[in-house]
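User: For my dataset I need records formatted as: sequence, then structure tokens, nothing else. Please produce one.
Assistant:
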Amino acid sequence: MTVIDRPLDFLWFIPSSGDGAYLGSDDLSRPADPAYFREIAKAADRLGYSGVLIPTGAACEESFILAADLAAHTERLKFLVAIRPGTASPAYYARLAATLDRVSNGRLLINIVVGGSAQELAGDGIFLPHDERYDHAGEFFQVFNSLVETGKANLDGKYIKAIDARLGLPPIQEPRPPLYFGGSSDAAIAFSGGITDKYLTWGEPPAQVAEKIAKVRQAAAAKGKHVSFGIRLHFIVRETDEEAWAAADRLISKLSDETIAAAQEVFAKSSDSVGQARMVALHQGRREKLEVSPNLWAGIGLVRTGAGTALVGSPKTIAERLREYQELGIDTVIASGYPHLEEAYRVCELLFPEIGLPGPHGQIRSAFGEHRVFGGGGHGGNVKIASAS
């Protein structure tokens, strides 16, 4: 079975630095609140998303701790959490990962984040130049992988030294939880070829994604490895294309030019990420032409770091765009939308049927076999469909 014959593996997102209905505005915003994150996770679990990405960074809740909390409130949902080499030793991260996999009953996915903001990394005590961070990460994962796969590790490296390191309790998943990674620089792609189980790209036009996929495949083949591919996208799906584009316009309707300029200045000064530069290049900080490829809208990247594009349209339109990415080799989508609770429902209810995903788990019967329609929720319940005369 080819990639395009299989339904996509579809994950959602936990907005652990906060959420809202308008970019660049406090109107209808929602602060970072663990109770709200549980609402989103429980909804994603019930609606049929396979997992959630939990972001990392100084502005976010710590991903391992948040995942452990959310695991206690969900049943099937997997948690894609970040390991940032250099913020702790590989032995300590191995203990964190094994424990989280054990307490969640094998629901851990690992997101390798080498780091895109030199300014933030300096705050974490990491001062290596961009490309050298990947050399460091390569040694880090030699130790980490050896520990979680065999329980022991030794390395006398340039950056990492581990002498008779031990891990007492193994993870549930064998040989270890899967490793996800995204990075667009030559150094990142070279690193990904020997380490990554799944390579993630941000939502770029298909031609650019195809170019990256080819490079990663070549890097992996050179090291005798196989890698699969995923894409990180926002979604604005409505019943019609017109409604979806109106919703996209509404999302940035309270975003001022001054806020855009301030955000872009921060990106330029603090980030040495090639992926971030590629996102900025799509819109160049301007509102005039935000549809950078059919139905691929770069408005979110005017103020958001990282993934800055959304697929906008009706379920049928978005399904067509997703199939184009599938034909390139994409088999996984990590999705989000604003606000994340409501949009998790929209994407499930509108898009999932169009792309062959089953939707909510374990829905119970609402009638004794006869077809009824929603009657407004009154005390009389729903109503039968009248027979055609």
